[in-house]
Design brief:
The chain is an alpha/beta fold and 787 residues long. Among the domains are: 87 residues, 2-Layer Sandwich (Alpha-Beta Plaits); 84 residues, DHBP synthase, CATH 3.90.870; 185 residues, DHBP synthase, CATH 3.90.870; 144 residues, Nucleotidyltransferase, domain 5. The protein has 24 helices and 30 strands. The strands form 5 sheets. Strands 6, 7, 8, 9, 10, 11, 12, 13, 14, 15, 16 and 17 form a 12-stranded mixed β-sheet that branches. A 7-stranded mixed β-sheet has the order 27-28-24-23-22-29-30, with helices on both faces. Strands 4-1-3-2-5 form a 5-stranded mixed β-sheet. A hairpin with a 5-residue loop joins strand 22 and strand 23. It is globular.
Length: 787
């Protein structure tokens, strides 16, 4: 009996070779019909004998091409129409527009063709197929077809047209398909804008510039990048001077996985990440004595390594003989440049060569960064290869909720129906250029998903650019507290239901009564949120200056620990020697402060410990520098050496760690009238851990052992505090849990005490996840209010 089935499916089905896969399966099963794209959806109509159609649809589900996902599958029967053959029909907007896929590194088939002298795409730097190539960075609109990408100006030659229309071809409906005859071409300019070479000549001259120690600006997948040789300290320092980046580590690119292994220690999981289609930067432990300039990652034990993420990168670095620094080409604090005119203007006098091409980049997308924590991937920066992303969730809204994210490491997200759509990281919103990119990112998600927002969500902090942007929207605003959003993001990632304790440790977030929070324990159950514990507050002498000058935080904890004797103790700490002449000045500030700025932020506690051990004492040139250097020192310590130093015995006594504070505010309120007053939160005392650190410094124990022990003490502090509340599920969120030493030890300690800890993996633990948490928390609140 001949039947006709109509299947409507929603998910990531565009730009991944879904239609070619369906057509090949249809031909192999002998069914008739058609398939077409439609926004974030696809539609399949098939006719044939019932058993054959059933097997065909089962194979469609079970044999998805790499990168494809199906979030929803609906199927209905209709009267057969006598269709003959199976075709790809013209796209139509039939879905929610949620299915745009990320850019993908070149596949092995394309690399083989690019290396084959007999192939017509031999050494062609823009080779791609249905399984790889640019996607998100070239999409103008949906459905995803060539005429709605930045490839629309490149008319297909006869050979490419045949491949594009042939179902058996790897390039059947590969929208960025190109070749040397009809596709984008390279051009190399000098610092003054004069053309030096084109095509293969441009590539050869660029390689020679790198060999000669010159700085090259390259138009990459998601924006322009600086490139230079990484084995020459003079060259790297020159790049730092030109880019205005004194200390923040640079990422390195090498040609093969064997080159990575010669430079760093690589686990099996890390190798899989490096060689994945996403091709992220992976943070790896560096080997001793490798040919990498010290100035690439000053005072750090890890290097950010990546393999080539595009055919152009492959050709540029192949057999070069040394690693390359590859980093975003932008002014300090601004987004990566994406147009030739912008790059030439903003980057002038910073490069010797300018290697560009004529394929437009639609939106800036930086390289993604990941690391392995507890044998699993943790996202550090979600961008190229991983963005955009769709996340199914049990939370649902009848309309659309837009989350504007935070001020730093900004990412935007929206929740439509029961799916969260997350864009690429925008970055810090300290400049007009960054704010402009943020607005475009929000507009992109709304437009491409054909959404009509019902609510916009922002942080509590009035000075965040996103909070100010929210006031410009014509929609109702929901404000979600910073750390509540952190916790809600992890709950959404893991689909957790019921009570959850969120340990939210970061640098800063505005809490109730304009308090500065950052060392928090929150109890979350659906819409209900309560602050149940927090770190003992510390003063911030000099206010915001304490965020960039760690020695101020060190003085603050010394004053808290030793009162009037703090200067005597400070004089005995060699790490504070560079700022010893400034201590008297700070003492006047402390005495003059009528209402000192105070915070519970764990990030400032790490700054204090770092300064006591001599890390980034005077000033941090990049956010988190002191804490990252402290983590690096902890990696040089060991359990054995710490035990021998007398710091490793036993758990901290619970009585010294915890105490109740009846004078603190009882409640964190996401929406004031939804939460009832509860008992006062517990105040968690960090002083035993810092006091032990000070004694160790005075006893001249090794910095590595002391840093390791400090992390060890804090992980125990977290575990003992959390166990007090009797909740099984615990999420560890906030930028502090990007620290591998702290995260690994805390996961272990929580498990030992019988809890189920969850560490963010799909999203960074820091502020890049705020938008996801904002829309998730807002959905829980609006659902409760609508009951």
């Amino acid at each position: 009996m001949v039947v006709r089935h109509v299947v409507h499916l929603i998910g990531t089905v565009q730009g991944v070779g879904f239609r070619p896969t369906v057509i090949k399966l249809a031909m192999s099963h002998g069914v008739s019909g058609w398939v077409r794209n439609g926004g974030g959806a696809a539609e399949i109509v098939c006719e044939g004998e019932q058993p054959i159609v059933d097997r065909f649809l089962r194979d469609v589900r079970n044999h998805l091409p790499p990168g494809a996902t199906i979030l929803n599958w609906s199927e209905k029967s209709e009267e057969p129409a006598g269709l003959v053959g199976f075709l790809a029909r013209e796209s139509a907007m039939i879905g929610d527009g949620l299915g745009v896929v990320p850019d993908r590194a070149p596949c092995s088939n394309c690399l083989a063709e690019m290396s084959d002298p007999t192939d017509r795409r031999f050494r062609y730097p823009f080779i791609n197929c249905t399984g790889c190539g640019p996607r998100w960075t070239i999409v103008l609109d949906l459905p995803y077809d060539r005429e709605r990408t930045s490839m629309r100006s490149f008319l297909l030659c006869a050979d490419c047209a045949v491949e594009y229309g042939e179902p058996s071809s790897r390039r059947f409906h590969a929208e960025p398909i190109a070749c040397p005859v009809c596709g984008p071409r390279l051009t190399l300019l000098d610092a003054g804008g004069l053309e030096l070479a084109r095509g293969e000549g441009a590539l050869a001259t660029s390689r020679q510039m790198l060999v000669d120690g010159k700085i090259l600006v390259l138009k990459g997948v998601g924006g322009f990048q600086y490139c230079c040789r990484a084995d020459d300290d003079r060259v790297v320092r020159w790049l730092r001077l030109r880019k205005g980046r004194p200390d923040k580590p640079f990422a390195l690119m090498v040609s093969t996985i064997h080159d990575v292994k010669r430079t760093c220690r690589v686990s099996g999981q890390e190798q899989r990440l490096l060689q994945s289609p996403e091709a992220p930067i992976v943070l790896l432990g560096r080997r001793h004595g490798v040919a990498v300039a010290w100035s690439v990652a000053p005072r750090l034990r890890h290097l950010g390594m990546m393999l080539p993420s595009s055919p152009l990168h492959h050709l540029l670095i192949q057999n070069l003989g040394f690693p390359l620094v590859v980093t975003s080409a932008n002014l300090s604090g601004e987004p990566i440049c994406i147009t030739d005119d912008e790059a030439k203007t903003k980057l002038q006098n910073t490069f010797s060569g300018f290697l560009t091409h004529d394929r437009d980049i639609v939106r800036p997308v930086d390289d993604s960064v990941v690391q392995v924590v507890g044998r699993k991937m943790q996202m550090v920066r979600r961008a190229r290869g991983y963005s955009p992303m769709t996340l199914p969730t049990y939370q649902r809204t009848d309309g659309c909720i837009v989350g504007l994210g935070g001020h730093l490491k900004n990412t935007v997200a929206l929740l439509r129906n029961s799916t969260v759509v997350v864009g690429q990281v925008v970055g810090d919103l300290d400049t007009v250029a960054a704010t402009t990119v943020h607005r475009k990112s929000v507009a992109d998600l709304v437009r491409l998903t054909r959404s009509a927002p019902n609510f916009v969500v922002a942080d509590w902090h009035p000075d965040y650019r996103t909070t100010q942007e929210a006031s410009q929207w014509p929609h109702p605003i929901i404000r979600i507290q910073h750390h509540h959003a952190h916790v809600a993001a992890a709950i959404a990632e893991y689909g957790l239901r019921g009570p959850v304790v969120g340990v939210a440790w970061d640098g800063l977030g505005l809490g109730e009564r304009n308090e500065l929070w950052g060392g928090e324990w929150l109890y979350v159950d659906g819409h209900f949120v309560r602050r149940i514990a927090h770190l003992r507050p510390i003063d911030l002498p000099g206010g915001e200056r304490a965020h960039v000058e760690p020695w101020r935080c060190a003085v603050s904890v010394l004053v808290d620990l030793f009162s009037e004797n703090w200067k005597v103790v400070a004089a005995s700490i060699t790490g504070l020697a560079p700022v010893r002449n400034r201590l008297d000045q700070l003492e006047h500030v402390l005495k003059a402060a009528v209402e000192p700025v105070r915070t519970t932020a764990a990030g400032r506690l790490f700054d204090a410990a770092a300064a006591l051990l001599g890390c980034a004492v005077s000033v941090q040139s990049w956010e988190g520098q002191a804490a990252v250097e402290l983590e690096a020192k902890a990696g040089t310590g060991s359990r054995r050496r710490t035990m021998e130093s007398g710091r490793g015995g036993g758990h901290l006594a619970r009585s010294r760690v915890l105490r109740d504070d009846k004078n603190k505010a009882p409640v964190v309120e996401a929406v004031a009238n939804l939460v009832e007053a509860q008992s006062s939160p517990v105040v968690v005392d960090w002083r035993p851990a810092v006091s032990a650190l000070v004694r160790g410094v005075q006893a001249q124990l090794t910095a590595g052992a002391l840093a390791w022990a400090f992390h060890r003490d804090l992980s125990r502090l977290i575990a003992l505090t959390t166990a007090r509340f009797g909740v099984k599920n615990v999420v560890l969120v906030g930028g502090c849990f990007q620290n591998r030493v702290l995260a690994t030890q805390t996961l272990r300690d929580l498990r030992l005490l019988g809890m189920r800890p969850f560490l963010p993996r799909l999203f960074p633990p820091g502020d890049s996840a705020l938008a996801v948490g904002q829309v998730s928390a807002a959905a829980a609140i609006t659902e409760f209010q609508g009951r």
